[in-house]
Design a protein that fits this description.
Blueprint lengths: L1 H27 L4 E3 L9 E2 L11 E7 L7 H15 L5 E8 L3 H12 L7 E6 L1 H10 L11 E8 L5 E2 L1 E4 L3 E3 L2 E2 L3 H31 L1
Helix pairs in contact: 2-5
Length: about 210
């Protein structure tokens, strides 16, 4: 009996554990698409003058609004919990949307973030109110943009300009975005989801490179 238990522990338990984790990988390897296609920001004015696009990028999209100083806490939370961990990923970027005329405010925010980290992949873009409303509407979420064109929610946009999130219950419990004003929500939900989508693309890139070498 003792010999059987030893053999069970050595051989059967590892196999069961492998099957469990393998099934977990299959179920959670990809972050669900919650909106197939959203508007792009191509052609919008950017703070640095460089063109900004969602195409072929992993983007964290936020709406800072016409009073960005009042929303800087969410940017600092994102910088600390998300940006610092992932900015080394080649195609990763943070895109923050503001109304036209708020360039000086954006510059001030960028400088403040720059005291804490490299701001190379922080992008601030500007557009008229109608375009900002159109972009937010294209996300097709249950959230509303504030009267100052701001939202505490931020969104994960993939390389195909689709929005990713969670579908714990596809009818009643869809996570479209993440409340960046809440450190707990960033830590407990958003961080894991960003890891998943970046891992997804790493695996896709590795498979592509492997196929090219054959």
């Amino acid at each position: 009996m003792k010999k059987f238990l030893v053999l069970f522990a050595l051989f059967i338990v590892p196999i069961v554990a492998y099957l469990f984790f393998a099934s977990g990988i299959n179920n959670f390897a990809k972050l669900p698409v919650v909106t197939d296609k959203i508007d792009n920001v191509e052609g919008w004015k950017s703070l640095t003058g460089d063109p900004v696009t969602f195409n072929q990028k992993i983007t964290i999209l936020g709406f800072v609004g016409s009073h960005p100083e009042s929303n800087k806490l969410m940017l600092f939370n994102l910088n600390e919990k998300i940006y610092k961990r992932f900015y080394g990923f080649q195609d990763f970027q943070m895109v923050m949307v503001l109304p036209e005329g708020k360039e000086a405010d954006a510059e001030n925010l960028r400088n403040q973030i720059g005291l804490l980290s490299d701001v190379e992949k922080w992008r601030f873009v500007f557009a008229p109110e109608d375009k900002i409303n159109s972009l937010f509407s294209s996300l097709q979420t249950t959230y509303r943009l504030g009267q100052n064109l701001e939202s505490s929610y931020v969104f994960i946009i993939d390389r195909n300009v689709a929005m990713r999130g969670r579908k714990d219950n596809p009818e009643t419990d869809i996570v479209y975005g993440y409340d960046a004003a809440s450190v707990a929500e960033i830590q407990n939900k958003m961080l894991d989801d960003v890891k998943v989508i970046l891992a997804e693309y790493r695996m896709a890139l590795k498979k592509y490179n492997s196929n090219r070498q054959k």
